[in-house]
Design a protein that fits this description.
This protein is an alpha+beta fold. The protein has helices at 2-8, 85-91, 105-120; strands at residues 16-21, 24-33, 48-52, 57-60, 80-82. It folds into 2 domains: 2-94, SH3 type barrels, CATH 2.30.30; 95-125. It contains 3 helices and 5 strands. A hairpin with a 4-residue loop joins strand 3 (48-52) and strand 4 (57-60). It is elongated, with a radius of gyration of 20 Å. The chain starts with a helix and ends in a 5-residue tail after the last helix. The relative contact order is 0.15. This is Bromodomain and WD repeat-containing protein 3. It comes from Culex pipiens (House mosquito). It holds the Pfam family BRWD_AD. Residues 1-71 form the BRWD/PHIP ancillary-like domain.
Length: 125
Amino acid sequence: QTFDTSVRRNWGPGDRFRCMIEDVWWLGQIESHNQLSPDFPDSLFMCFRVRWDNGEYEFMSPWDLEPVDENRLPVEVGGAVPVLDEELKATLYQPKTEEWPRGDRDASCRRIIAGLEQVMGLAIA
């Protein structure tokens, strides 16, 4: 889901973004779109050269970037903003019914847990 959402955003040079690193949001701007490796010209992995608001440069992937929330900006340029619990939850995977056998996620999870418990009960585990 994160990958699909990030690709649909069509990030490009000049776009402002925020990135969650540990428990804070850091802000920056995309400087350019590059090829990390000529062997994989269409790869999006680390394809953006970004300039952080603190002046540092780095290469990032689209799935590392989030749109800037204009209501939650750092007090000073180059500073960070704490990640709120609801922001963290919004970034988590949201399971869909059709992704689980017979559409029953709970039953599938119970079956997986039971299997893992059996494996962990083996002497070699």
